[in-house]
Amino acid sequence: MKKLSLHSKNLILVSFIALGLVFFSFTFAQTTSSDSQETATEEQITLALNDLSDIYGKPVENVKKAREICNSEQFIVRCAEIGKLHNLYKKEKLSQVNTILEQIKGEISAKLSQCTTAECFLDVAKQLSQKILEKNPQLATQLDLTVKKVEEKREVIEAAKEIGVELKACRTMDPNKASVDLLRACVRLSNDDRVGKFISNEFRNANSLNSTLTLRDALDKKEFICGDNTIEGCGKFCLKEVGSIPPVCREITEKFFGPEGMQKLESAHQKVNKVKSEMLKKNKLTPAPIKLPLDCAQNRVVCPDVESVTECPVGQVRYLVRSSPCCQYYSCKPNDDRLNPEAACIRSGGSWDGTTCTMVNNTDQAVRCRQDGGIWNDMRCQMPNSQQQ
Questions:
Q1: pLDDT, tens digit, for every residue of 298-354?
Q2: pTM to 2 decimals?
Q3: Which of 29, 333, 354, 364 measures 20 to 30 Å from 136, CA to CA?
Q4: Contact 389/378 with Cβ under 8 angstroms?
Q5: Pairing of strands 316-323, 375-377
Q6: CB–CB of 100/50 below 8 Å?
Q7: Which residues form the signal peptide (predicted)?
Q8: Among the listed residues 292, 367, 299, the one whose alpha carbon sits nearest the alpha carbon of residue 327
C-alpha cells in the first residue's frame, strides 16, 4: 500500500517540476549534475551555495534546495552566473551558457526581473527564443527553446487556468500534505491533452492514484482505523505486523486497489517478515517473554509493614487505600449510607443485587441492630440517642 501511494504522488511532483521549466536547464540544477565539472570540489559547491544564499535572502544549505531555487525563472540568470564564477560547468555546456546570457542581457534581462506571472515568463521566453534562433538555430533546437515549444507551454498555462489550478501549485506542493482537491486538480491537468505530451507515460498510467486519494478521504472520515489513519501511517502499520496481515489492511487493499494491490501487499509483507526473521537469526535474538501473573505465595512476596486495618469500629467502613499485585492496604472512614446504598443495605441485614436491597429476615436485622448498640423492638431498631432505623 505504501509503495502505491508514494510512487503515484511523487510522480506528480517530479512531472510538474519538469513541466514548469519555461526556459532550459543550464541553472544550478545542471551545475550539480552530469553537466557539472567532474573535478568540481566540495569547496566550489559550498562557495556557490553561499552566493546563492545571498541572492535568495535565506540560507541555502544543500544542492537539492539549490536546484529548486534555480529552476525558478526569476533566478535563472543569477544561478548561471554563479555556476560560471565557480567553474561548475563543463566546457561544452559553458559555451551554451555564454550564448544564452549574451542574448538575455539588456531588455530581456530587465523584463525577466520584473516578471511575476507564468504568462510574463512565456512572453520573455518567446522573445529570447527568437533571438537565439536567429543567432544559433542549432542551439535553440538543442535547448528546446523554439517559438513552437514556447507556445506549447503557453497552452499548458491555459489548461491550468481552465481547470482552476496554478501550475506553480502543482510544482511546489508536498504530495503527502497537499489537499485532496489540489492533488485531484493536478491529476486532471496531467490528463489534459495539451499537458500530456510533457508528462511521462509512467505517471499518466498511474491508475492507483485516484484510489489512493479516495482512501485518504476514507481514513480522514474514520471509515477505517489503520495505524495513525494517514496514508503513510496505515502503510507502515500493515507492513510492520509480524505473522498474518491485519484484517483491516486486507479490507482496505481489496476495496481500493483490487487483486493486483492485494498481490503487492502480500508480497511486501512476506519480504518484511523474511527480513525480520533473518535479523533475529543473525543477531540471535528471541522475542520478549510473555509476562505471566505473579504467584504471590510461590514467590514468597512479603508486604511492607505498614498500617492496614482489618476491622473498623461501628459507624465506619473499611476502604482500599492502595494495592499491588500481592498487597492491599485498607483504612477506615465514616459510613455515609446516603452515598453507599450497598453498605447501608448490607449493614441492615439486606441482600444487595446492584440496584435493589432485599431484606433477608427479621432475625438478621435484630442481630445487626444489637451489634450496633441498639434495641430491637417491633421491627424497629431503637438507638440509644433516640435515632431510629
A1: 555 556 555 566 777 776 777 666 666 666 767 777 766 545 656 666 666 666 666
A2: 0.41
A3: 29
A4: no
A5: unpaired
A6: no
A7: 1-29
A8: 299
